[in-house]
Amino acid sequence: MGKKKVKDAVGEGIPVKVPKKMTRTRKGSIVQHDKKTDYTGGRKDVLSFDVVYKGDRMTQSCDMNGVVSVVSQFDDYELIGKISLVASKQIALEQGCALNIAPTGVTIIHKARQEIVNMDRPSDIAFATVIKQNSKEYEGFAYVSQNIKLNLRRCHVFTVLQGAGELIIQALEHAKSEYVVRVQQDMKNPFAAHKHAPREVPKGNLFSKQIHRADLQALEVLGSGQF
Predict the structure, then answer these.
(1) Do 43 and 196 touch, CB atoms closer than 8 A?
(2) Are 181 and 111 contacting, i.e. CB atoms less than 8 angstroms apart?
(3) Which end of the chain is more exposed for a tag (fewer CB within 10 A), N or C?
(4) Closest by alpha carbon to 158, among 114, 108, 204, 200?
């Protein structure tokens, strides 16, 4: 049987690879790799990282000070080496997630529940950083997403394997640049369908009466979302 696929955002490609050593987690690790499930939805243009999602909190600033103030509110995983095997399994089960990064969205998927916990646009991520810990196996990672209109900032905190934090930052930077390119392309023709968008072919008499997006073109902006 093949891997189960979980639906997720689709991107335009991220030139960052996850090393194989990060998909071979040890038995007692709190960061576990699920070999049976493909959290990218089968898309090669979505990059997926195994993470422990500690949670998110409101923060006042999009910088290291804002991150540090939030990180201090969560469990100290510097002592992770002293946790029992049973406790490690429990953390992996309750907080184990897949962090998917694509130009169309940064998504946190809870592995056990197989549901989307949070999703941000790449353009909303204002700050990301690696948090060094007193551990040879793990390191912390956090990013701050902001809603400019509402003047709100949320800091999302994770525990990842050593070396994963910098790869995630590289993937985020590329996703943000690709997101800008896609928005500019969409502005040229808002009716244009994304090349990865699912398409349902009309049947019977409807086939000859269908209207193709490629034949539509916006003439002028009338209002919010109206053309």
Answers:
(1) yes
(2) no
(3) N
(4) 108
